[in-house]
């Protein structure tokens, strides 16, 4: 195939995804299935860099696969598999550990952020070397494009640096990947606290829109989103973070620019706007939820799809790993 290879992944770190993951990641992936040779991974090895409940992790892994399928990832056009089913990810990561500088790894800001809560002393070494495993995920597949949020840009740059370093020491082996950064406009914030990023680990139950929420819960959350006391439906992150957040959600789900929505709602109040956004969210996520629940009810089919895709990934990854091992003298 002459289509560019794309690689992206999500951790199975919660029972479900939120609308931020949908708008920032999965929805973008759907549009890449024809234009690229895409690999969408469920990165369970990354999920064990923080303490996990084994049963919950296993369930979240299968639930995430059902969600990918329910959202429209098509295994006939894209490869979707579970990272731990392809041992080459961990094997290449070890080789890359050997060419990564300690100082270089120490400069990764996500580790600093993620370890800030419990303290660095209490964090696992796995959380520290996480970006090296991520580089391995990307480099194993000759990935050209990595669609990520701006929070992951530094990690993709590390993958580029490691690819170039390996190539210059051992001969051309890896494709040097490009990040495809989604801009800040694609970032979704908590509905009750619209200056904090919506996150799987957020405490705010009412502010997080889960993809599998019932239609009633979806509508209620949108309609009770925090907004300011004004009346203009206008994008302004500083003065109107709540309305701006709903504009971003509506713009992404309808595929129209924010400016067009501002025009449509000129002279109309927040009530009309919120009702329409609620209807739009229900119309988008409702059918995804129904399809996801069908896949969740058929775990054997989900496992079959994952196995078939993992075989393809395994073939690609094993060939690359063999080349790497030969080059470094293993
Ligand atoms: P979370 O931060 O919710 O734990 P992940 O780190 O697993 O989610 O991210 C999975 C994907 O979803 C990444 O591509 C990330 O950039 C995207 N993403 C996460 N949160 C948001 C958000 N609030 N808005 C937009 N995209 C998001
Ligand atoms: Na994230």
Automatic annotation (TrEMBL):
Binding positions for ATP per the UniProt entry: 11-13, 20-21, 149-151, 188, 197-201
Keyword rRNA-binding belongs to the record: no
Enzyme Commission designation: 6.1.1.2
Subcellular location: Cytoplasm
Residues that coordinate or bind L-tryptophan: 137
Domain of life: Bacteria
MF GO annotations: tryptophan-tRNA ligase activity
Catalytic activity: tRNA(Trp) + L-tryptophan + ATP = L-tryptophyl-tRNA(Trp) + AMP + diphosphate + H(+)
InterPro entries: aa-tRNA-synth_I_CS (IPR001412), aa-tRNA-synth_Ic (IPR002305), Rossmann-like_a/b/a_fold (IPR014729), Trp-tRNA-ligase (IPR002306), Trp-tRNA-ligase_bac-type (IPR024109), Trp-tRNA_synthetase (IPR050203)
Renumbered ranges of motif 'KMSKS' region: 197-201
UniProt cross-references to PROSITE patterns, sorted A to Z: AA_TRNA_LIGASE_I
Pfam families the record matches: tRNA-synt_1b
UniProt keyword annotations, A-Z: Aminoacyl-tRNA synthetase, ATP-binding, Cytoplasm, Ligase, Nucleotide-binding, Protein biosynthesis
Family: Belongs to the class-I aminoacyl-tRNA synthetase family.
Subunit composition and interactions: Homodimer.
Described purpose of this protein according to its UniProt entry: Catalyzes the attachment of tryptophan to tRNA(Trp).
Protein name per the record: Tryptophan--tRNA ligase
């Amino acid at each position: 195939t002459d289509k560019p290879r794309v690689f992206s992944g999500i951790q199975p770190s919660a029972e479900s995804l939120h609308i931020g993951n949908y708008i920032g990641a999965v929805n973008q992936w759907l549009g890449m299935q024809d234009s690229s040779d895409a690999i969408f991974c469920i990165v369970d090895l990354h999920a064990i860099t923080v303490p996990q409940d084994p049963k919950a992790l296993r369930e979240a892994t299968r639930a995430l696969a059902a969600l990918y399928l329910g959202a429209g990832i098509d295994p006939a056009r894209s490869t979707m598999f579970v990272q731990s089913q392809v041992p080459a990810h961990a094997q290449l990561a070890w080789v890359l550990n050997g060419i990564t500088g300690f100082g270089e790894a120490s400069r990764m800001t996500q580790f600093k952020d993620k370890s800030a809560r419990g303290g660095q002393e209490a964090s696992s070494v796995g959380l520290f070397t996480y970006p090296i495993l991520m580089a391995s995920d990307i480099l194993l597949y000759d990935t050209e494009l990595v669609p990520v949020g701006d929070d992951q840009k530094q990690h993709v740059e590390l993958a580029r640096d490691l690819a170039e370093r390996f190539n210059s020491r051992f001969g051309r082996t890896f494709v040097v990947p490009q990040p495809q950064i989604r801009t800040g406009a694609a970032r979704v914030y908590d509905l009750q606290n619209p200056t904090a990023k919506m996150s799987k680990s957020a405490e705010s139950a009412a502010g997080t829109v889960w993809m599998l929420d019932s239609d009633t819960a979806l509508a209620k959350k949108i309609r009770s989103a925090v907004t300011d006391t004004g009346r203009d439906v206008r994008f302004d992150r500083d003065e109107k973070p709540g309305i701006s957040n709903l504009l971003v959600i509506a713009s992404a789900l309808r595929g129209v620019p924010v400016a067009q929505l501002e025009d449509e709602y000129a002279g109309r109040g927040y009530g009309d706007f919120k009702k329409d956004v609620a209807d739009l969210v229900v119309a988008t996520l409702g059918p995804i939820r129904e399809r996801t629940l069908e896949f969740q009810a058929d775990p054997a089919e989900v496992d079959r799809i994952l196995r078939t895709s993992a075989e393809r990934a395994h073939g690609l990854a094993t060939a690359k790993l063999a080349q790497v091992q030969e080059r470094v003298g293993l």
